[in-house]
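Colleagues,

Please find the record for the two-part complex below.
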Amino acid sequence: MAVGDVSMPQMHAVKGVKIGSAEAYVRYQNRRDLVVFEFAKGSNVAGVFTQNAFCAAPVHISKAHLKITNPRYLVINTGNANAGTGKTGMANAEATCAKLAELADVSASEVLPFSTGVIGEQLPIERLVNGLQPALESLNENAWLEAATGIMTTDTTPKGASEQFEIDGVRYTMTGISKGAGMIRPNMATMLSYVATDAPISRELVQQLLNETVNVSFNRITVDGDTSTNDSCIFVATGQAGGAEITSPEDVRYSKVLEVLTRVMKRLAQLIVRDGEGATKFITVAVEGGENTQECCDIAYSIAHSPLVKTAIFASDPNWGRILAAIGYAGVPNLDVEKIQVWLDDVQICKDGGAAEDYTEEAGARVMAQTEMTIRVDLGRGQAKDTVYTCDLSYDYVKINADYRS
Amino acid sequence: MAVGDVSMPQMHAVKGVKIGSAEAYVRYQNRRDLVVFEFAKGSNVAGVFTQNAFCAAPVHISKAHLKITNPRYLVINTGNANAGTGKTGMANAEATCAKLAELADVSASEVLPFSTGVIGEQLPIERLVNGLQPALESLNENAWLEAATGIMTTDTTPKGASEQFEIDGVRYTMTGISKGAGMIRPNMATMLSYVATDAPISRELVQQLLNETVNVSFNRITVDGDTSTNDSCIFVATGQAGGAEITSPEDVRYSKVLEVLTRVMKRLAQLIVRDGEGATKFITVAVEGGENTQECCDIAYSIAHSPLVKTAIFASDPNWGRILAAIGYAGVPNLDVEKIQVWLDDVQICKDGGAAEDYTEEAGARVMAQTEMTIRVDLGRGQAKDTVYTCDLSYDYVKINADYRS
């Protein structure tokens, strides 16, 4: 059960983006497990990918293709990650691109492949390529929900965000989807996420917008601290809604797009945490008063990764000593604990490094019992701040991951 | 239930070490929760302590006292960690030393205090100091088992190691105890461990021996990755069995002591993992072929901390892709995955970065079903190696930590 409101909004079509899907029986039966995106000619595409050294074959190929073209197609399969699969895995990912290119009459380098699922098994490549033609035949503008559903693995709910905004009298759309529930600690990207707008933006700025927003969204979430081999996030601007191309970050229109994209990306990232494997609570860890952003981020992740903090929150137990311990072992040099304040929502639990005098177990337990809460830490040594989103650690996390594959 | 053989050996008395205990009702009822060590005059004492910035009041004071004296007494309470307790916590730890010093007619700086248990609550100092006199009255040489039992918290079994060895016709003893089951990822020390020998060793070398052996024992284990606020490890050489003092690491007797101490420390450290909260499997992660020890250690810990690897092992599921992913996100620069080999005991699961051709699920499952196994990784880029010990992640880990304090 996902935490809080994870409902799909109205998924507005993005001019210049068509989506098709098919049942390819990669692993799952009776569901669309193959998704194809088609972008109108002239679209600008940017991507960020996992920094896991064991990155999957499709990640290698997507990165290489992005360097030499502005891709026209994405092809995504679920059920098999095509990671740890050696040369055969590379050949299979290349064969997928080649077949789709042939059917769609583009070059293979204009296709980006993506895979998610079990690591270390070879793709059933024949079944996969047989699904490409039916997927292409189903291409249409109003299939974002089908795409969000098609890319799910252990997710319990499809994940989407969609907004419309106006610049100079033109109405633009920003729509995106994401997937992921376990092996979630993105490093420069996430499990899988695709966001598109029909606003006109230069390719350089599409990448810049993606980098800026990934760093406050997908790069600030964790479920279990395990960075996936397949994390990929794609942002595309088709320009099909019209208007002059945005080519400078000084352009006021850039700020407007950045604002909308930040909101969409944060929502998509937080949806992954809300649907984290076994999650029963959604937790915001906000660290402020640091000398620099990195140390705020380190401490926030130290708290967000601590199995002891996460099990205490699962149990609604305000065992705040575990939060202090996690702050203390984050590895931040010269930390003066006597300057540290910690709050659970509005309840101060730690004042100047020790228990706050007016703190009561009842007040702490009241916040801990909520399904959403903020752990706020003030380091008292500077102006920097950072925020990380995570969930608790429950019996069901163990159950899901002890049972997966079986 | 602890994993494998965790039985207490015959705990040989160490000449010059006496141990007393008492029921002080710090938190637990009807058990000895206060332990006092007395060392003969002339003993040389060394210690290593947690690097957690939120280190406990007794850690602050033990470190300060060790700098100015060769301590004669240790006093240890369980049930309350006296961490995150501010100035009152410091005053309570100092009062404990002062009272014991008065009763034993030594200076307060010759007493080292230790606490373990819940973080963030004040010690019931009156009950604690009232237990000191009965503890002193019970001092005797044959109470190592009582001490090992007295310092337990969530441990399910007392932990001890004891050996006798001969140098130049003199028989010496090396005996030690440890405790800890959760919040285990020692950084320069462990939860609590006390090791003593009656061999004559200079103070400088006592510290050197401790540093050398901690780095292959307590600094190479993890249960949940949470570094405690109270980790402390003490090694004392009383010299009471006779012989000329060992004053140089070139002395052949130094090598003999190092060999015995390494074995004792590794056993005490591994006992903590075998009794890790919820543990059902004991796992050795051995990484070789690295450019340097640090990268071997980083990869070993990355595997040992991965909740996905740990839940797969709990389920006896040879889902080895999770091991590859953990190697890949360890942050080791320029890792060439095509040179990487991985084995589960004698079964090669990954060859040159992909699935080993003759690997079968049956072979992997056979090893995964064992209660003890070694995950061996060869990075194929150098001669360095390192080894880390850990356990699996089970329902009971969540249960224990969601229920603790309740």
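The two ends of chain A are 21 Å apart (CA to CA).

Comments are welcome before we finalize the supplementary table.
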